[in-house]
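Vacuolar protein sorting-associated protein 41 homolog, Carassius auratus. Tokens?
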Amino acid sequence: MAEVEEQGRKLSEESTDESEEEDTEEEPKLKYERLTNGVTEILQKDAASCMTVHDKFLALGTHFGKVYLLDIQGNVTQKFEISSVKINQISLDESGDHVGICSEDGKVQVFGLYTREGFHENFDCPIKVVALHPQFSKSNNKQFVTGGNKLLLYEKNWLNRWKTSVLHEGEGNITSVKWRANLIAWANNVGVKIYDISSKQRITNVLRDNTSLRPDMYPCSLCWKDNATLIIGWGSSVKICVVKERDPTEMRDLPSRYVEIVSAFETEFFISGLAPLADQLVTLFYVKENSEHMEEEEEFRTRPRLDIIQPLPEGCEEISSDALTVRNFQENQCRDYRLEHSEGESLFYIISPKDIVVAKERDQDDHIDWLLEKKKYEEALMAAEISFRNIKRHDVQKIGMAYINHLVERGDYDAAARKCQKVLGKNMDLWENEVYRFKTIGQLKAISQYLPRGDLRLRPAIYEMILHEFLKTDYEGFATLIREWPGELYNNMAIVQAVNEHLKKDPTNSTLLTTLAELYTYDQRYDRALEIYLKLRHKDVYQLIHKHNLFSAIKDKIVLLMDFDKEKAVDMLLDNDDKISMDKVVEELKDRPELLHVYLHKLFKRDHHKGQKYHERQISLYAEYDRPNLLPFLRESMHCPLEKALEICQQRHFVEETVFLLSRMGNCRRALQMIMEELADVDKAIEFAKEQDDRELWDDLISYSIDKPPFITGLLNNIGTHVDPILLIHRIKEGMEIPNLRDSLVKILQDYNLQILLREGCKKILVADSLSLLQRMHRTQKRGVRVDEENICESCHTPILPSDTAQAFGVVVFHCRHMFHKECLPSPGNVAGIQYCNICSAKRRGPGSGILEMKK
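Tokens:
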């Protein structure tokens, strides 16, 4: 097999023009190899004249009249001495049990390969063609045809004798014949005929196009694609004919079948053979010499070409074209070449006198070979992965390794490293070899991000080697690897020592310090990591504390945490006050009052009572650092010492806070006085008086304002709904000029009118509601009450109606729906001739309350 492949490669090299060095990007469709072994020895002494192909074997005829049966490797299995001159054609039936042979000296032999019994005849003219019925072995009449100057049909009659019929004559020698099913196609000097053996009718005559070509030099090539499609190649013309059934209504005297030419086109060169390939054609071309060209080009153009073409209705499209260097091609003519094919496989045999070449479709292995040859490694790898079950000569991993090697040679180290993930898979040895190779070429960084880090892991030394490499040259890359790689991949202590060594040279390097903290975290030395994070004020410090419950380690680092981020620190401390007590936090922050204030302020906002013992201290803290929140604190705190707060506020001249504290302590006059004297804000004074709702305060406010016209205006605008405005107006001195007095008086009158209207409206609503309720009560009391056996006495709890209604009985029913036997009512329920429900009276309700109760 290795020899065959080697020969195929040599032939492929020879099958392209040596003078043409340019690479083509188009992949060939076929691959070639010479048929060797016994064929080589035969063609050294003799020359091939014809060959026919069966799925099981080959039959080769020579110029010296011999016929050889060969296996598909070219080994001779049988030899027949038929004649001393050229064998013109060999025909086999479908079973391969019978063979027909004709030669140039007029001999025709048809016999079984396992018995020589059959037909043997010598004619007085050369017999050019012979064809057996495809079912020759199975049929009873054993039909076959021969062709010299006429086409003869031989068949056995019922007496087991051969009967001869002339199918055609008079148009020159028969040069080609092909039999398929019931159809016989043959070519003579005039054209191609098709004969239907079942109806014994000739159904068509396809004339040849170029009559200037000698039929013996440029013979016709016939090929059946299927039972109804005939392909004709003659000269440079190709026609594809389809045999169709004729409509019975159109028959008359015409044959039952007819032929339609579905495609016809001209080719550039002369046709030596045709064969079908799916919906395409494989065409063997004879390329004629052209003396006008140079010698080198003459040599190339005289080589036969094997093309794959796509027939079209009025033309064709070339799919691929290969020039073949067959032995002695310079001496061959168009008639010396033949193309045979195996219908069972896509095998095509190019026969020339001194050489036989086998062409076959390229398989996936060949496709991959071509891609590798063109250095298209990625496409080769993809093709191998898709067809890994069908490839025989290639291995996906080996192709992948070749691709990686190619990328490394090209300097594309990142792409090479990326492919390692896909190609190396779980092969530990290959991974380690690649890592060391990347180390040798100084590209460990490229492969680092693609190393396995899941269930498959390399030896720790591999990961440590890469980390040490990064630590020497790239601190940021080193930090990235530490973050991305699980700590179990390498010896953590060894890396920590290496980082510490580098920190001795650069102790303030934040990247190395952060990475060292992460290493300590992996090693569960959280206290060391916390120290570094706090030193760097790293954002992950709070996450580290929460995740690993490091509250015991931060009790003496509260100030550092607060300096870093007060808000996050306070939230964390308050959320975990069961782990770090409030007293401990206050103790730690006592020397940093501004931080202590932030903590206590948030504590107070969360719970007004939780830090009550620090409320006294908070007064001074608010006064010092957060005065806007002092007054809200004083309003909301129930544990704040008022005297202490008043003292601090008076010292700092906080008027609003002092006013609030004075009013809360009951000294409202002093508070009002401060508003009037120190704030001089009549609106606030009026608001304060409204809040206290004290007549004496209003008097004080009026007395203080009586000699201040702006204050009087403010009072006139706001006092109307709380104090009689007449009291203020009577006390205004005559002649005093008061700003906007007219508008103020108008407003007082409007307010008064509004109050009168409101009172009248309320009165109307009250009267209407009273009347409505009275009418409802009257309707309710007039309503009847149903008394039946289901009702019981509320006193004795027996049925209200006696079992014998014929006897006299008394029942009392109240509007409240309570029912009693008359004799069951207690005597105290009867007062001044009016009787009340005993139950409702016990509940201190008036008459009819039972009705209201029921209504509810």
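Residues 363-458 form a domain with the Serine Threonine Protein Phosphatase 5, Tetratricopeptide repeat fold (CATH 1.25.40).
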